[in-house]
Amino acid sequence: MNELQVGKTRIPYTVTRSPNARKRRMSLTPDALEVVVPAQTTDAEVKEFLKSRSTWIKENVEILRDSNPHQPWPRKFTNGAKVLFHGRYLPVTLHFTASQEVTVEQHPDSFYIRAPFEVAFNDRDVILQEAFREFYATSLKRTVRELVSKFAGRLDIKAPEANVGEVEDGIGYFNERGEPVFSTALILAPKFALEYVVLHELAALKLRTRGKEFWRVIESVMPDYRLRAEWIKQNRALLTSGQI
Q1: What digits encode the pLDDT tens for the residues 11-67?
Q2: Distances from the Cα of 45 to the Cα of 19, 38, 51, angstroms
Q3: Which is higher by pLDDT, 72 or 105?
Q4: Rounded CA gap, 144 and 139, in Å?
Q5: Which contacts qualify for 54-58: CB closer than 8 Å, 24 or more apart?
Q6: What domains sit in the chain, N to C, each tagged with a CATH number?
Q7: Concatenated DSSP letters for 102-120?
Q8: Residue 5 host element (H or E)
């Protein structure tokens, strides 16, 4: 296993080269770092990527070790393995067939996955994680847009075009058009926490400030916002660890 040293902190890491990886991605746990890269990525490019993110890696590893948050993925994708979805661990049922693509179906209390036979023997975990990431992004975008419409009405503002995507060092931002972009990792948060994040961003869009009036507006719409915000605070490492 390779080792990344940042200051006095040593962080073991593994590199997975996959033909199914579209871009470089990191997954952090309290004890290790996994780097997933496209198959053609060289060792030098991996090291340069880690060097560019070394400060972020060190800070988040320390947070993870201190807070020990839940992990979103199972160690191995097998029947009965569980994934984290909106604050709940839901079991996965795998069905390998002669199909040509991986599909993820959401049931009330579980997920059902159909995948080609070869996935069972080649890069199963990488491929199924990628399928879940795509499903998560689609699901979160739909939910976020419903919440944006709901809370924009409560705040008496026009609902902006909301999107989801990768967010470095945070859980959301406003793009150059002034539209909110929410981190895909928010799919891990319970619905009550996600509602708070959406309301928070819309209130910022309305008031352009975070003074007393900002929090008064938040409380008028969501009297229990402090409890919801506390969940975000306590689980921030999970939402910013780069695992989704």
Answers
A1: 788 888 888 888 888 877 655 688 889 999 999 999 999 988 888 887 776 655 554
A2: 16, 11, 10
A3: 105
A4: 9
A5: 54/4, 54/6, 55/6, 56/168, 56/169, 57/4, 57/6, 57/11, 57/26, 57/28, 57/33, 58/6, 58/7, 58/9, 58/11
A6: 2-67 (no CATH), 138-239 (3.30.2010.10)
A7: -EEEEETTEEEEEEEGGGG
A8: strand 2-6
Distance in angstroms (rounded) separating the CA atoms of residues 161 and 181? 9
In angstroms, the CA 15 to CA 37 distance is 7
- C-beta separation of 76 from 93 below 8 A: no
Is residue 3 within 8 A of residue 219, CB to CB? The reply is no
Report the alpha-carbon distance of residue 234 to residue 54 in Å, rounded.
23
Distance (Å, whole) CA 163 – CA 175:
10
Considering just the CA atoms, what is the radius of gyration of the chain in Å? 19
Q: How far is residue 10 CA from its own chain's centroid? A: 25
Convert 104-133 to b/e letters by CB count within 10 Å (16 or more is b).
Answer: beeeeeebebbbeeebeeebbbbbbbbbbb
Whether 116 shows a pLDDT value over 90: the answer reads yes
The pTM for the full model equals 0.72
